[in-house]
C-alpha cells in the first residue's frame, strides 16, 4: 500500500535541517535553474502545459495555460505572486511545505518568474504564521547570498527580486484579487473582473497568481520532464499532490500521492479510523466543498471524479468525521467562520452568511420547524453565484450538502428540542435515550 505514495515535494521533509540551503542543495536543489535557463521562456511554459499541471490551490485551472495568458507585448512589468494565505478550515499543505522545505518554493518561483518574464515576485503569506514567514525570509536571504536570486542569476543574464509579504490575517485575502489589494496596501476585498489579473493585476500590470504547491511543483517538472509528471495521476488530472488528512484518523498528516487515489486507500495509509468508530462524513477539499459520505470512499480523488460525485477536489483538505460528530453542529461552526470572515463588500455574502448563521443556530438548538430547512436552501440559492467571490459560494456548500445527506439528523434536532447527541453519555456520542 505504501507504494501508492509518491514523495516528491515531501521527499526531503525528514532530512536533517531540511529547510537550510545546504540540505536542499545536497539533494540536487537549484539544479533546475540551469536547465530552465538553457530553455527559452516559452519552452518552459510549453513544458508546464505538456505536463498537465493544474492549479493546486482549489480551482484546478491549467497552470501553463494561465502563464500563457500574460500579454508579452504589454510594456508594463510582469509580476508573479504566490498565494501562501492558507487559511480555510482543514487546509494544511502549503504551510508544512514552506516550513519543511522553503527552498523548494523559492526555486519554483525563480523558474516560474523566468517563464513569464517577471523580474519581481512576491510570496504573500498569512500573517499569523510568523514562524513560516521567518523561515521563508531566511531561505530567500540564503538564495540571494548563493547567487540564486538577484542580478544575473547563474550567469544567465536574468534578474529577479523576491519579496516575502506578511498578510493582514484575513481569510478573504486567499481570494486572488483581494490578495492583490492587500499587497498594494489597501483593504483586502475582491475586485470586480474584468480586467483579469493576467492583464491588469498587481499595480495594474500583467500578473500571474499561483498557489504554493503549484509553483513548488515546477522544478521537478523541469528536472524530470513533463512526461514524467504526466505519467502520474489520471488522464485529465495529472501528477501528484499533497493530501492533508485531519480529524478522526489514527495518523493524521500530509500524504503525497498521485491524483486519483481514493479516500479508502488514504485512510489505510493513515492507519484507519480511530478504533471502534466509523466514518460518517468528510470533506474532499476543505470546509468550502460539499460534504461526502462513506458511499464515496472509492471515488477517485481527481478533479473530474469528485466533481461528478457532487463536490470539489479543492485543496485536498480531507477532514474526516466519525459517528460521534453532530453534522449540524459541525456545519454551524463552519458557517460562523464564513460569516466572521466575510469582507462585507457584497450584499449576498455580507447579509446572506449572517442569515445562514441565524437559521442554522436555531435548528441546532431544536427551534423552528422543518420549513426552516427549505428556508436554508432558499438562502443558499440567493447567495450561490451572486457574490463577488467564492467565499459566499463556499459558505453554502456544507449546508446544502449536509441537508441532502443528513436531513433526518436536522429533523432529529427539532424532534428532541436540541442536539440528539449526548456527549456525556459515552466517549462516542449516543442519541438521547439510546444505550450508552
UniProtKB/TrEMBL annotation:
* Short name of any one Pfam family annotated for the protein: NADH_4Fe-4S
Q: Which reaction does it catalyse?
A: a quinone + NADH + 5 H(+)(in) = a quinol + NAD(+) + 4 H(+)(out)
Function according to Swiss-Prot or TrEMBL: NDH-1 shuttles electrons from NADH, via FMN and iron-sulfur (Fe-S) centers, to quinones in the respiratory chain.
UniProt entry keywords in alphabetical sequence: 4Fe-4S, Flavoprotein, FMN, Iron, Iron-sulfur, Metal-binding, NAD, Oxidoreductase, Quinone, Translocase
Q: Indicate the segments forming the NADH-ubiquinone oxidoreductase 51kDa subunit iron-sulphur binding domain, all copies.
A: 328-373
PANTHER family in the record: NADH DEHYDROGENASE [UBIQUINONE] FLAVOPROTEIN 1, MITOCHONDRIAL, NADH-UBIQUINONE OXIDOREDUCTASE FLAVOPROTEIN 1 NDUFV1
Q: Does the keyword Cell membrane apply?
A: no
Q: Which SUPFAM superfamilies match?
A: Nqo1 FMN-binding domain-like, Nqo1 middle domain-like, Nqo1C-terminal domain-like
Q: Which GO terms describe its molecular function?
A: NADH dehydrogenase (quinone) (non-electrogenic) activity
Necessary cofactors: [4Fe-4S] cluster; FMN
**Organism the protein comes from:** Nocardioides astragali
InterPro entries referenced in this protein's UniProt entry, alphabetically: ComplexI_51kDa_subunit, NADH-UbQ_OxRdtase_51kDa_CS, NADH-UbQ_OxRdtase_suF, Nuo51_FMN-bd, Nuo51_FMN-bd_sf, Nuop51_4Fe4S-bd, Nuop51_4Fe4S-bd_sf, Soluble_ligand-bd
**Statement: the UniProt record of this protein carries the keyword Iron-sulfur:** yes
Q: Which family does it belong to?
A: Belongs to the complex I 51 kDa subunit family.
> This chain belongs to which protein, by name?
NADH-quinone oxidoreductase subunit F
EC number(s) from the headed UniProt entry: 7.1.1.-
Source domain of life: Bacteria
Amino acid at each position: 500500500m505504501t507504494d501508492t505514495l509518491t514523495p516528491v515535494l515531501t521527499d526531503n521533509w525528514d532530512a536533517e535541517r531540511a529547510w537550510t540551503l545546504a540540505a536542499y542543495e545536497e539533494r540536487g536543489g537549484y539544479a533546475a535553474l540551469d536547465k530552465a535557463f538553457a530553455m527559452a521562456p516559452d519552452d518552459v511554459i510549453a513544458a508546464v502545459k505538456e505536463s498537465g499541471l493544474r492549479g493546486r490551490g482549489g480551482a484546478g485551472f491549467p497552470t501553463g495555460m494561465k502563464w500563457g495568458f500574460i500579454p508579452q507585448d504589454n510594456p508594463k512589468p510582469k509580476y508573479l505572486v504566490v498565494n501562501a494565505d492558507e487559511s480555510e478550515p482543514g487546509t494544511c499543505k502549503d504551510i508544512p511545505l514552506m516550513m519543511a522545505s522553503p527552498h523548494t518554493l523559492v526555486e519554483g518561483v525563480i523558474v516560474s518568474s523566468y517563464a513569464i518574464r517577471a523580474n519581481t515576485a512576491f510570496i504573500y503569506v498569512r500573517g499569523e504564521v510568523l514562524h513560516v514567514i521567518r523561515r521563508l525570509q531566511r531561505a530567500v536571504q540564503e538564495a540571494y547570498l548563493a547567487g540564486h536570486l538577484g542580478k544575473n542569476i547563474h550567469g544567465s543574464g536574468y534578474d529577479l527580486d523576491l519579496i516575502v509579504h506578511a498578510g493582514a490575517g484575513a481569510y478573504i485575502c486567499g481570494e486572488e484579487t483581494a490578495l492583490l489589494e492587500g499587497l498594494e496596501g489597501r483593504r483586502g476585498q475582491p475586485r470586480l473582473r474584468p480586467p483579469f489579473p493576467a492583464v491588469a493585476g498587481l499595480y495594474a500590470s500583467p500578473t500571474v497568481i499561483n498557489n504554493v504547491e503549484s509553483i513548488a511543483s515546477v522544478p521537478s517538472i523541469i528536472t524530470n520532464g513533463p512526461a514524467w509528471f504526466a505519467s502520474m495521476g489520471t488522464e485529465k488530472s495529472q501528477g501528484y499532490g499533497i493530501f492533508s488528512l485531519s480529524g478522526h484518523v489514527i495518523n493524521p498528516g500530509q500524504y503525497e500521492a498521485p491524483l486519483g487515489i481514493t479516500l479508502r486507500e488514504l485512510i489505510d495509509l493513515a492507519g484507519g479510523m480511530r478504533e471502534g468508530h466509523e466514518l460518517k462524513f468528510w470533506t474532499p477539499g476543505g470546509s468550502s466543498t460539499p460534504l461526502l459520505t462513506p458511499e464515496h470512499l472509492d471515488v477517485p480523488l481527481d478533479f473530474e471524479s469528485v466533481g461528478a460525485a457532487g463536490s470539489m477536489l479543492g485543496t485536498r483538505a480531507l477532514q474526516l468525521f466519525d459517528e460521534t460528530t453532530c453534522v449540524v453542529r459541525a456545519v454551524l461552526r463552519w458557517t460562523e467562520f464564513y460569516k466572521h470572515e466575510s469582507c462585507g463588500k457584497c450584499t449576498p455574502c455580507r447579509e446572506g452568511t449572517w442569515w445562514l448563521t441565524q437559521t442554522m443556530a436555531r435548528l441546532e438548538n431544536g427551534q423552528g420547524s422543518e420549513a426552516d430547512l427549505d428556508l436554508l436552501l432558499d438562502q443558499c440559492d440567493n447567495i450561490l453565484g451572486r457574490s463577488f467571490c467564492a467565499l459566499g459560494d463556499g459558505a453554502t456548500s456544507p449546508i446544502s450538502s449536509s441537508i441532502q445527506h443528513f436531513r433526518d439528523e436536522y429533523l432529529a434536532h427539532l424532534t428532541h428540542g436540541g442536539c440528539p447527541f449526548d456527549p456525556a453519555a459515552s466517549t462516542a456520542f449516543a442519541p438521547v435515550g439510546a444505550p450508552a
